[in-house]
UniProtKB/TrEMBL annotation:
Protein name: Protein translocase subunit SecY
UniProt keyword Membrane, yes or no: yes
Signal peptide: none
Organism: Mucilaginibacter auburnensis
Gene Ontology biological process: intracellular protein transmembrane transport; protein targeting; protein transport by the Sec complex
Family: Belongs to the SecY/SEC61-alpha family.
Keywords from the named record: Cell membrane, Membrane, Protein transport, Translocation, Transmembrane, Transmembrane helix, Transport
Record Pfam families: SecY
Role description: The central subunit of the protein translocation channel SecYEG. Consists of two halves formed by TMs 1-5 and 6-10. These two domains form a lateral gate at the front which open onto the bilayer between TMs 2 and 7, and are clamped together by SecE at the back. The channel is closed by both a pore ring composed of hydrophobic SecY resides and a short helix (helix 2A) on the extracellular side of the membrane which forms a plug. The plug probably moves laterally to allow the channel to open. The ring and the pore may move independently.
Keyword Nuclease: no
InterPro entries: SecY (IPR026593), SecY/SEC61-alpha (IPR002208), SecY_CS (IPR030659), SecY_dom_sf (IPR023201)
Gene assigned in the entry: secY
Gene3D superfamilies in the record: SecY subunit domain (1.10.3370.10)
UniProt topology in membrane: Multi-pass membrane protein
Length: 446
């Protein structure tokens, strides 16, 4: 406990770090206040009792309850995340955007500008769909055409403002702003989920013992998730020795840390998108809604749904790792800098060696990621309420663990730069952004 208070004191002594933390908290406070401001023309009394389930429930969790509350921040940063993913895929498939990614700072500025434009388009489309699907006629207080036009503009402006807050947090605060906004939205639902589960256990089945067992299981899942997020396979790289004048350069051994889960949370997001196709088909074809397979695929607790979900996650983990980690570029960069892997010839053998290592570590990483993704369904089967079960795994838990580790790593870096002790007595806090420089990729916001 003394170490904890000493660390807090050291953090407060560093003026730059103190200002950044205060700025971050103020920006996040602005976001949370805006999450309770409802859209103009909406009857607030009709929206309080709305419950969000399925994909809507997941989006509502990311938006901190704004989605079901019909707030001006209802769409949150998800349109921006979608635009970022599209631009990342375009950078792989379209030569024009691939060339732009290699232009350094100017190229990144152009890509960011394109991402903002695409965010406006995606937000406008999603805003119309959101107003038509989530706002019923009895909740609208003004004429419908004007209501849709006005609130499409309001929702678009709200998303752009949230995106601006995220950029300000990144520049003036601590940590990745977009990731922190998503994390705050997820944490905002934790107290109500915790209280609901406590009441459910104490007044229903299981009692207090079952609730304590659930908390122990949750801690175990969090620890398991941290192992997956931080797990790396280090490849030794030896650099050739060079003599320039009277000085020696190179001749040192470094390591390329290849992450066990290089794809992050993206495979779960892609797999979830595909798993909602049966429900979409059923909405257009009423007769298909009675099909037993369609019903099983739409049931989050069914074995068919979870087995297919896990298989899709494994496939998408390999796919996303293949398009984001480039062994050829890593091999070329090592060769240009005079580096080589001991026992492996430069060039194609090095590329094949790195590709083989990635393939080997991706399999256990994808299996573990699939296990984390289906744990919420398993928690539901043993009686955990749906809202609290989401914290046992899936997208929300991976985002929480990754963002917390990244933020703690940045705080520790500020402490070590000023010659203070780190956050831990032994070892260092490792964030999820430890991506090899030769990989030629930048970690996404989530």
């Amino acid at each position: 406990m003394k170490k904890f208070f000493t660390t807090l004191s050291n953090i407060w002594k560093i003026e730059d770090l103190r200002v950044r933390i205060i700025n971050t908290l103020l920006f996040l406070l602005i976001y949370r206040v805006g999450a309770f401001v409802r859209l103009p023309g909406v009857d607030a009394s009709q929206t309080d009792a709305k419950q969000a389930e399925g994909l809507v429930g997941l989006l509502n969790m990311f938006a901190g309850g704004s989605f079901s509350r019909i707030s001006i921040f209802a769409l949150g940063v998800m349109p921006y995340i979608s635009a970022s993913i599209v631009m990342q895929l375009l950078g792989i498939a379209v030569p024009y955007f691939a060339k732009m990614q290699k232009e350094g700072e100017s190229g990144r500025n152009k890509i960011n500008q394109w991402t903002r434009y695409l965010t406006i388009v995606i937000t406008a489309v999603q805003a119309v769909a959101y107003l038509n699907s989530q706002v019923t006629a009895n909740e609208i207080l003004i004429a419908n055409p004007m209501f849709t036009i006005m609130n499409t503009m309001v929702l678009t402006a709200g998303t752009l403002f949230v995106m601006w807050l995220g950029e300000k947090i990144t520049d003036k605060g601590i940590g990745n702003g977009i990731s922190l906004i998503i994390m705050v939205g997820i944490i905002a639902t934790l107290p109500s989920a915790f209280l609901a589960e406590f009441q459910n256990r104490t007044t229903g089945t299981g009692g207090l013992i079952a609730f304590i067992v659930e908390l122990i299981a949750l801690i175990g899942v969090v620890m398991f998730t941290i192992l997956i997020v931080q797990g790396t396979r280090k490849i030794a790289v030896q650099y050739a020795k060079r003599i320039v004048g009277n000085k020696q350069y190179g001749g040192v051994r470094q390591y390329i840390p290849l992450k066990v889960n290089a794809a992050g949370v993206m495979p779960i997001i892609f797999a979830q998108a595909l798993m909602f196709i049966p429900a979409t088909i059923a909405s257009f074809f009423p007769k298909a809604a009675t099909n037993s397979i369609i019903i099983a695929l739409g049931d989050y607790n069914s074995w068919l749904h979870n087995i297919l979900f896990a298989l899709l996650i494994i496939v998408f983990t390999y796919f996303y790792t293949a398009i984001t980690v480039n062994p050829k570029q890593m091999s070329d960069d090592m060769k240009k800098n005079g580096g080589f892997i001991p026992g492996v010839k430069p060039g194609l053998p090095t590329e094949s060696f790195i590709d083989g290592v990635i393939s080997k570590i991706t399999l256990p990483g994808s299996i573990f990621l699939a296990i984390i993704a289906i744990i919420p369904s398993l928690a539901n089967l043993v009686g955990v309420n749906n809202l609290f079960a989401r914290f046992f795994g899936g997208t929300s838990l991976i985002i929480l663990v990754g963002v917390v580790l990244d933020t703690l790593q940045q705080i520790e870096s500020h402490l070590l730069m000023r010659h203070y002790d780190g956050l831990m007595k032994t070892g260092r806090v490792k964030g999820r952004s430890a991506v090899p420089a030769a990989a030629g990729t930048t970690p996404t916001a989530i």
